[in-house]
Amino acid sequence: MLPKEENEMLTRVGPGTPAGELLRRYWHPIAVSKELMEEQPTKAVRVLGEDLVLFRDKSGRLGLLGDRCSHRGASLLYGRIEERGIACAYHGWLYDVKGDCLECPVEPAGSKFHLTVKHPAYPVQEHLNLVWAYMGPVPAPVLTHYDTLFRKDGHRKIIVHPQLDCNWFQAMENSVDPAHLQILHQEFYGRGERQPVSTTRGFTDDVAQAEFYLTDHGVMKKRIYANGIVDEHPLLFPTILRQGPSTQLRTPIDDEHTMHIHVLFFPTEDGREPAESWDPPVKYSEPYKDPPNKLHPFTRYTLQHIIPQDHMAWETQGPIADRARERLATSDKGVGMLRELMKREIAKVARGEDPIGVHRDPNHPMIETNVDEGVRQMRSDARAPSEGSYRHDLAKLYQGRGEQEG
Ligand code: FES
Ligand SMILES: [Fe+2]
């Protein structure tokens, strides 16, 4: 169990909170590029508890500004897009993508008043048809060169899951919880070709041992199967899970909501760079509960596949899980390790140091995240216990119906 204060420290994402400050040291995906259309070049986004407006000006520059105009607070979502930025619809204060106020049209001629106005603005960049934002102190680091996000020799697909209606840290704790795969996801495990000894145990006995170790970029979750096969799935601190071809990105919207995006990466066999490598197709998943906008117990999860099962487990823990009531057991070793890592990195940020996974050299070496395991699983006919479910899900994914597991 975790005292209330510690739970708050690990979960809250707003400005000035310990985890919020830590999360502000990283780039996070906040939207799909194509959501900013010519007909609709502004989009309201909530990120790390802050209400913001994303826009593309007529010069093609992307901006991310505080939603409420610095004048008297009207929303910039309805601002007029100009060559030089966005002009508030109310009285026309014109902001550029850096938040500098370029003009206050109703002020007297020759007024320099606009020079005194600085509107909240955050750097954004586009990568893989996603818009990424950095909301921490400048200078911003680079977007970390994880292999699945930066390797040239592969096809990619993006899947945008329905909004996750709970705190981000529940999804991250799940990333270091190897035990649930064999139980929660048992219907999809082994492609339905094997039956578990019982539905209570599921396929738990397939796994001889689970281990965890810290890496330079997070926590490695390792399963050693009874048949000798080993899989290793890295949690890339603080918001990413890597597994097989998937990179699961979790962006905290606020304390009780999270964006959940998969980037799938499939290396080409001959090492060539496919034309769409940097321009991957984007698919939006159907809702995982009905009605889709309600919380448990006023909605019912569909459980039609693995990710919906995960969403059920994470959301029904509560909008922010009450960890004062939990009973951690042997199988939760990875969860404990992740919490300790969070505390260590939060302390680093408080001391003014960069936390792990933050890189400032634009040419820093590619960071390997075990892509080979995914390749082996895709290309091999070997039947590792986890590979059955993996291949089954991959096939579904190609048909646009499912995703894979961590
Ligand atoms: S409220 Fe935006 S210009 Fe007045
Ligand atoms: Fe899962």
| Total separate domains | 2
- Determine the strand fraction and express it as a percent band: 25-35%
Q: What small-molecule ligands were found?
A: FE2/S2 (inorganic) cluster, fe (ii) ion
Give the biggest beta sheet.
8 strands, mixed
Run of helices and strands: HHEEEEEEEEEEEHEHHEEEEEEEEEHHHH
| Morphology | globular
What is the CA-based Rg, rounded? 22 Å
Mean pLDDT: 93
Q: Return the CATH class of the largest domain.
A: Alpha Beta
The overall strand count is: 21
CATH topology of the largest domain: Naphthalene 1,2-dioxygenase Alpha Subunit, Chain A, domain 1
Provide the CATH architecture of the largest domain.
Alpha-Beta Complex
Largest beta sheet: strand ordering: 13-14-15-16-17-18-12-19
Helical proportion, percent range: 10-25%
Low-pLDDT sequence parts: 381-385, 397-404
